[in-house]
Amino acid sequence: MDNITPYSSPHYFIYLLLLLLPIIIGLWFGKRFKAYDFFATVVILITAFFGGNMTQGISLLCYVLYEMLLVFIFLSYRKKHNNFWIFTMFVILAIVPLVFVKLDPLLKNQTISLFGFMGISYLTFKSVEIIMEIRDGVIKKITPYEFGRFLLFFPTITSGPIDRFRRFQKDVDKVPSREEYVELLHSGVDKLMKGLLYKFIIGYFFGTLLLPKVQILAMSYRYQAPLGLSWWVLAYMYVYSMYLFFDFAGYSLFAVAISNFMGIKTPMNFNAPFKSKNIKDFWNRWHMTLSFWFRDFIYMRLMFTIIKHKWIKNRVTIANLGYVALFLIMGFWHGETWYYIVYGIFHAIAMITNDAWLRYKKKHRESIPSNKFTHAFAVFLTFNIVCFSFLIFSGFLNTLWFS
Question: Where does the chain cross the membrane (predicted)?
């Protein structure tokens, strides 16, 4: 049996819901069967990581043991000490496996891909969050079981969303009332149906039926127009953007739905991002758990450090440097190719420009109109800026110009 990617086909959900049935029945009657939760997790992990190719499963086990060792060594250290550089060293050590995986395509060295398994990014974010919050003193106690349960929570292990340990812990430590669980079931069914629509119908239409045809047409003008740019490249930009959203949002809805069936209120990942009125609003709606993670654990901490040490006095300059650092890191996280890096720089520039416009608008609010038309134009402009960034992100321009 080959490894089975979670949520990869409609048939997967039939087996998954059968596996979840005892959990659902238990929660309906006010019981959380921890032993069965563990059994269900093992079954899902075996099918996803230990099928015909066991490499991913072995990598996952090695990774979890490695991160667990780091967390509990740091927890023991933090009870008596709080040195910034020791803390920094543990954060760096926690992300080393992810760095190896991200460097592998660049170096073309298979020996460094020990930790190459689905979902390593999301697990790394969770591990780093725990280390950071141990350092902050908000996590004072955690058991190996709690750490493993949080890291290996199977609805979100391969595609997110990225939950926070304390929020997750509150849910798993209690059993929802009958009324609360009925609401969770209704929410889960609604999100599951919407996810099926997004992933297997709309996403299939844009990604499988339409995108390859548009790509062929766009490539056919490669040598007939300056830089190969034609209206079909514009069509590719919009089609790819729609595919990216509906496919990814579908996966996220599946994860939240299955979490709800298990009595867990996993946070949503998308909130109508194409209705955003500016680029900052977009990042508050798109892949929210990731953008909020980067905001809380990278951007805000960087801002605090710069202000605390008075390296730079001007708040606008500090914010702008924070945007550049934040989105460069996000670009490198996606991969070490020029289009991911340019994607990050593009969004940093967009955020800096947006902040400058908002400051200007605040000073001249009496002379700048604000009505339904200006709002609609802002949404339209933001949508097109975002879609252009997705064209960069797609790598199609690399294929068009360099392949």
Answer: 12-29, 58-77, 84-101, 107-125, 196-217, 316-334, 340-358, 379-402
The residue annotated as part of the active site, out of 11, 81, 334, 375, is 334
Structure tokens at 146: 């709690």
Domain boundary among 170, 185, 205: 170
Q: Which long-range contacts (CB under 8 A, 24 or more apart) does 49-52 make?
A: 49/3, 49/117, 49/118, 50/3, 51/1, 51/2, 51/3, 51/4, 52/1, 52/2, 52/3
- Is the same domain home to 312 and 338? yes
99-103, 277-281, 283-287, 310-314: which has the minimum mean pLDDT?
A: 99-103
What is the spatial distance between Cα 271 and Cα 161, in angstroms, rounded to a whole number? 13
- Dihedral of CA 104/243/352/283: which sign? negative
| Structure tokens, 61 | 């086990």
Examine residue 5 and state whether it is found in any structural domain, yes or no.
no
Mean pLDDT score, 322-334: 93
Q: How many domains does the chain have?
A: 3
Residue 142, CA distances (Å) to 111, 320, 376 in order: 33, 37, 48
Distance CA 403, CA 398 (A): 7
Tens of pLDDT, residues 160-219: 899 999 999 999 999 999 999 999 999 999 999 999 999 999 999 999 999 999 999 999
Q: Supply 281's token pair.
A: 């609003």
Cα-based distances in Å from 92 to 68, 115, 182, 295: 15, 16, 43, 18
Range of the domain at 62: 10-170
Say yes or no: 278 and 263 in one domain.
no
Q: Do residues 370 and 243 both lie within one domain? A: no
Neighbour tally for 393: CB within 10 Å:
22
What's the confidence (pLDDT) of residue 105? 60
Q: Is residue 185 part of a domain?
A: yes
**pLDDT digit string, tens, across residues 113-171:** 566 788 899 999 999 999 999 999 999 999 999 999 999 999 999 888 999 999 999 99
The pTM is what? 0.92
What DSSP line would sit under 119-177, residue for residue? THHHHHHHHHHHHHHHHHTS-----HHHHHHHHT-GGGTTT-----HHHHHHHHTS---
Instruction: Respond yes or no: is residue 334 known to be catalytic.
Output: yes
Same domain, 283 and 372: yes
Q: In the prediction, which pLDDT does 9 show?
A: 86
328 pLDDT above the threshold of 70: yes
> What percent of the chain is modeled with pLDDT above 90?
79
